[in-house]
């Protein structure tokens, strides 16, 4: 004597409403109850028609999905700025990851891509692009020399005053 047969629940196709029956496998047995309980449609045609309709109304892509699509849209090429060959990233010129228009996409090496996204700050003394510590190359080197020679107090005070003035202007 075998195990008693479990009762098959009554189920209907989600698309056409036809009653679902347990299928016969090639071995001659009915499909397992677990498989039957997971089935939602009477045939592959009903499933494809229903799922095809739902795929047509997919939500808008997320920024992450959009970046992946951008990577796939732009062929692998050397950096557009420095010409470095190898690993390149896709840069959105308008900084909008959802805009995957080919005119908006460009391949850049990791270094050039970081430079494109870096904040451009200016020297607190003269207003030129900074090198480090809010100073341009000229004022950065002068400050370093003053530190090394031990007479940094006057120069440091000038820089501190310039920084405080910049903070006040920002507020």
Describe this structure in words.
The model has no long low-confidence stretch (mean pLDDT 82). This protein is 40% helix and 6% strand. It has three domains: 7-58, no CATH class; 63-117, no CATH class; 119-171, no CATH class. It starts with 32 loop residues before the first helix and ends with a helix. It is elongated. It has six helices and two strands; from the N terminus they run H-H-H-E-E-H-H-H. With 171 residues, it is mainly α.
Report strand %: 5-15%
Find the structural class using helix and strand composition. Answer: mainly alpha
**Element-level helix/strand string:** HHHEEHHH
Total individual domains: 3
Rg calculated over all Cα atoms: 33 Å
Count of separate DSSP helical elements: 6
From the structure above, extract its key features.
171 residues, mainly alpha, 3 domains, 6 helices, 2 strands
